[in-house]
User: Fold these one by one.
Assistant:
Number 1:
Amino acid sequence: MIFTAPPVQDWAEAEAALTAAFQRAQESARNEEPIVFVLSQPDLLGQGSAPGAILANALLSGMRTLAAEGHKANAVAVGADADPEDLQHWIAQLEAGRGVAGELVRVHAAHVGKIQV
Amino acid sequence: MSVAIVTGAARGIGAAIADRLAADHDVLRVDLDPSVDGIVADVTDASDRQRILDAVDGEIGVLVNNAGITKDARIVKMTEEQFLAVIRVNLGAAYELTSAAIPRFADGASVVSLASRAYLGNFGQFNYSASKGGLVGMTRALALQLAPKVRVNAVAPSLTASEMTRAMPEKVLEKMIASIPLGRQAEPEEIAETIAALASPAMAYVTGQVVVACGGRSLAP
């Protein structure tokens, strides 16, 4: 299952996106399917709107809890200038779910020198 | 003295925070519990949030988003009601209250939110972990948005002495404490001291950060 965090403008939209992520993650966990959350790196650092940062970081924490519960859950942090082919490559790698869980792979994320979320 | 608002202040960590901040601020204690020596309010209710802000005479110096609940279950068993209840109290209410307070903050004001070590991931707490991760995200975004006037930080405690830990079976508590390098749970007053430090001018150059006050548990095997 791949869940891409949508753009959100306020708390109501963030809550709706979180609920959708919960529903889809739960279904995948019950079916023992790999889970990949696709998140915005600028949102993880709080560089965009607060609702966007709330959503991205909530999903990152949720993904780590899914991994703690034994599910093949990972996430991709996407930079503003990410090459779509590179992004698809890493999503596919994580969706294959081979030996990694609870990982955050940063794709063109310009993250060096920033907080390691 | 400036005003400090503390949510979830009737007992536990929240009461300890309010008591500690009272040394330097006029403290407005907020809780759903009628025993609170302040305002009885439901922080998930917009009209109650407005009532909290209306009760402040002047500018706000400190806002501590402490109110929180748990409704634990593994993801495969968690109900949507459990998920939403935790997300709304721990995260949505904190964001909405902080947003509403923005025009009222004093120059040099400080927001401190109670995250949790669980934001790093914790078995049986998808809802709680997500809510605390969301608070971390809020902290980063508002730190950038409100600088240089207001600083925004978070504290992420681990096991802290409370009614809940006192009700735990002794062996369960002992096992949890054994995973903490400092060899004990935190006292609420210790977490309160960390929050007071972050809120104080002594930390005037710190914003957008999370202090993980976990006794080293987040490093231990």
Number 2:
Amino acid sequence: MMKHMLDIIDWTPEELDALMDTADDIIAHPGDYADAMRRKKLATLFYEPSTRTRLSFEAAMLELGGHVIGFADAAASSASKGESVADTVRVVGCYADIIAMRHPKEGAPTVAASFSPVPIINAGDGGHHHPTQTLADLLTIRREKGRMNQLVIGLCGDLQFGRTVHSLMNAMARYKSIRFVLISPTELRIPEYLREGMKQLGVPFTEVEKLEDVIGTLDILYMTRVQRERFFNEADYVRLKDSYILTPDKLRPARRDLTVMHPLPRVNEISVAVDSDPRACYFKQVLYGKHMRQALILKLMEAAQ
Amino acid sequence: MNINEIQDGYVIDHIHAGRAMRIYRHLELDKLDCSVAIIENAKSNRMGRKDIIKIDELIPLNIEVISSIDSGATVNTIKDGVLIKKQRLTVPERVVNVLKCKNPRCITQTEQEIQHIFVLADREKATYRCYYCDTLHKPED
């Protein structure tokens, strides 16, 4: 059966570990992989613009010696003429060896996978999944901490709508001795289904409102953006807004080996003064994302042959 | 209220009160030429209130449709005025083209001629999950 990457939890922790091993090897010996995808083509079907994700996929394929074709938004594709996702992937599958798809509709990559003759990678489907971001997060954690267990992971900001947070929690909950500290305004706590899911898995978590109260206890701090319009009232926004902005001052009580992560783009939730702190890992995270996409392309192509 | 005895047909009994019309719609009973009776809010010792549907013809009946909406219902088959089969339903693991996803952002809202697939999420609560977008569908939806 053709293997795809649609949702991170479709892959076992062992499979994800193997991907991370490959990514580590690519980082250590990039020359060994320079022709791994020679004469192969990746199609990037981006029905909505996402420049950084698309460039990451393109860079990943180019560094493997492959080629890239595709479109960068729906207006430039046959979707604007009303072609279905099913038909598009059947056509593109005649040209490309592997497809990365970004689509505003949730579940579109699942439809694509049902019809495609080549592997599909979900490069983000609405507010649903964004598994290759989680791959970047996982490799960042493993390389920075040297382990995937016994970690206290703080997730800060908009935990209700942040799909990267949900995927990361689901992925990390499968490792041993993980504890989550969820830092958000009450309105933006994790959704009920995820809270229930964590309880069922027996993964401990605490929910707090202020970053200052817990920052000293964390091994990892995963920041996300809190948008003003997500608050129910102005008073709460004014009271809490500074609590979700990471500054050098706020980092002072944090551990020396804390890892600060962010899926990017950031607006103001991490002060630029934090960038020079050795604990800031969000730009490394971008780089690791590219290497994980390389590892993923290799794995899916290997499984397809 | 007086509804004639059925000679050849079905009595779908023990439907949760309020769900008969959904079963009626999904089975497309409005397209039949035979008599169809819907009894809503009938008294029931076991259920308090229940709905019943009577169909006056032995049409090909899609049991999966009924069980995905109300697995507690029973389907009685009547031939020559005699009850020949009493069928209790089971909750199907997967239902195709019965439920429709209510998430406006789901790909099933725009993709042409796609199969609407739901996978059982919680047997006790008869909750289904959209195969594409994971949105949960509860029996009362």
Number 3:
Amino acid sequence: MDVAHPTAPAAEAPAALKFPTGAIVAALLAAWIGLMALAISNIAADVDNGFKTAITLNAGIGPYSGKELFMFVGWFVSWPVLHFALRKRDLKVKKWFAAFLAGVLVAVLLMWPPIFGAIAAAIQGG
Amino acid sequence: MEVPIVSRLMRMEPSLAVLLVVTIGAVAIVGFVAVVTTPVGMLVGDSFWEYVSAFHGLGATVFLVGSTIAVYLAWRLYVGEIRAFKDLKVMAAFSTVMSAFTIGFGNWIYMAYRSTGGPRSYFLETPGLEAIHDTFFEFKEFIALFTLPMFLVSTFILWRYGDSLVKSKEARAAASVPLLLGWVFLIMAYTLGAAITKLRGVG
């Protein structure tokens, strides 16, 4: 009986994390959803003055107050939902993390004024 | 002549607690001397908004210092050579708290920035300076918000998975890279904030 290799070689065994990786993916996705909610609400406020007025929840800081609210609601609502949906699943962190990085890059670009201004102007023009 | 107590003290290894107390004491003495011998308050200003602005800047600076330490430790985690994992957890959590604190004070000072006669109207009404608000400040106010999700994501992963992260290359990256990104976003917001304040501060 071969007892030297009772299981698969160690190099192929999954890393022994304390919990399945689903919670990592949920945290990353929720953060990205929050950032995109901020970016989209910012463009929408640039396109539509009615929306800009509607999201002005505080006169002192103007529509920025509503944009922040969109970000925090998007983030903190999606996080528990995704967490409980994914926490027992082992997902491929590499794939989801790459998607997260690409998503953050998109969110940053959408927050750059010449870009979001051009997008808003294109939507208004169309 | 050898004095037994002194020579014994000289041979002792100072504990971290003693070093900390001595450092804090020295800083406190220097600070006290500075406050009673010079008009330090003039550096802050005497209006309410200048005090809020000072807290915002001070919070951002403490955030920058703490997060810089966290980024170094995150790099050690990323390459799989971290020893001070507990320090990384603490510094990531501290940076997250400082991010929230600084954003909170940033919202407060933004009221003064937008007020009639404030820096925003100065930039928009001064020919050639419109881009300071339209491009740089607009970007600064948004990119500063990006720091909180980045630091909180890293803090969550570090605290939930603990040092079991060290065994997984992908999980190490997921815990450490958002922290680095948050630090980059902080640097952007910090430098833009300092530059804009130099051009026109709140009064």
Number 4:
Amino acid sequence: MNRDPQYNFAYLDEQTKRMIRRTLLKAVAVPGYQAPFASREMPLPYGWGTGGIQVTASVLTDQDTLKVIDQGSDDTTNAVSIRRFFQRTAGVEVTTSTEKATVIQTRHRIPEQPLREGQVLVYQVPVPEPLRFMEPRETDTRTMHALEEYGVMHVKLYEDISRHGRIATSYNYPVLVNGRHVMSPSPIPRFDNPKMHMNKALQLFGAGREQRVYAVPPYTSVKSLDFEDHPFSVDAWDRPCALCGAGDSYLDEIVLDDGGARMFVCSDSDYCARRRAESAGSEVA
Amino acid sequence: MNDQPLLAVNGLADQSALVVNGLTDQPPPAARGLADRPLLAAEGLTKRYGARVACRDVSFELWPGEVLGIVGESGSGKTTLLQLLSGKLTPCAGRVLYRDGDALVDVHATGEAVRRALARTQWGMVWQNPAEGLRLGVSAGANIGERLMALGQRHYGHIRGAALDWLKRVEIPEDRIDDPPSAFSGGMRQRLQIARNLVTGPKLVFMDEPTGGLDVSVQARLLDLIRSLAMRMNLAVVLVTHDLAVARLLAHRLMVMQGGRVVEHGLTDRVLDDPLHPYSQLLVSSVPRV
């Protein structure tokens, strides 16, 4: 698809992209640190991915191949809209394949297929501040980050255990990045938290409304917070994906009718489709 | 006022005891070995808000295990002084020295990191309004455990054990551990605040009207608790109160403040029984008797 010449490449003007890239450099230099940036008004509402889109627009080149996923799926409204937005304003190649993509913008999931060096994963973040739940004042949370006062994060986990008998936080599970900054991984399921650890790809996080970007550079340690006697664990399902039979992926529950019938399928649509294509191929052979 | 001469005699007796034993008879006997140096020293503390002076040239020393009462009417600068001492406000002149082991820390000149670390480990802060000192949204257990977790404890079982132990020590039923403080009565909230502060074994606790807003029977229990804990843990306490009865029960020494100035300073019994300054005399005589 050709780029609409009415727009500058990737919608944002060059000065804005330069400003965001500078902030991203700062964010990469201090893994997990929330760097403030001058978030722009985007042609979609806050909460729909304005932060992620600005970060993607800033790192995109015309050589890039873009993949956009929402809840793991390439074909939800949000993913389709954002993909079309960049097709029109940047004229870049788009794909649904995790393997082929060089830039992946995501909301709520990390692709099942391990990322490789050179790939960039851009997260859309609604609330970048992991301490917000315990401490509503921004001035205080900044001081707490500066002085590494992270005791309150465990107060939240303590509450979980005392109420539910286990750590019930199942998404947006706080992590310690590079042994220094506590970071909100955005609302990805905690199932995906281990994938962030020592990931080969560059992970960038953009929060448009809150005007913050932060980053996890490749090969950076990302540790999920926990207690010694209640260690971090990920969810497991007692059945494989109903479509592709994968036993190692994050499953969505799909209600089939009013009688209570339901099925569990991979939330990562590309992963599921690829597995099904492979098994179909091997059956033919 | 028939008993005035008698009380004056008592006051004199106290003073003579003081002279005989020297100043160090203030802390309880167990602490005497440690008490050869003051824990906290204020030197010429002054705080001005524009032309108004909230606190004028206040100096004193506080020894380990000693309870110092600060009394005076509303607006006399008591709370400002407490905030200066605890590092929450910066003085316009003067300094506060705190003895941390062998090191002497200038509370306001040192970095914020040190000040906050002190506040979390060696100091406690009990507010009149428990909402300021507690997290009302999380359970009692988490409130008590917060300081431990801030110090790096990462074992849920141990933290919960300490919380249960402290609930027992402040006489809150153990089955309330998972209830939020918002479900507690005023007296229980105050006791929870105390437990939350003392769990890390601090050396110095600042209390701002800890019994304000509580009815008398609850007050009495709380005072009893504070007194026994302070004694057992050899706590130094700076206690701000407008209630002379509270000061009488808890404080070893009293400072009377008026208009930001310390107008009288001495042993509690001496100040209350034989006030020297006209303002102290007014304060003591205005306490209604039942």
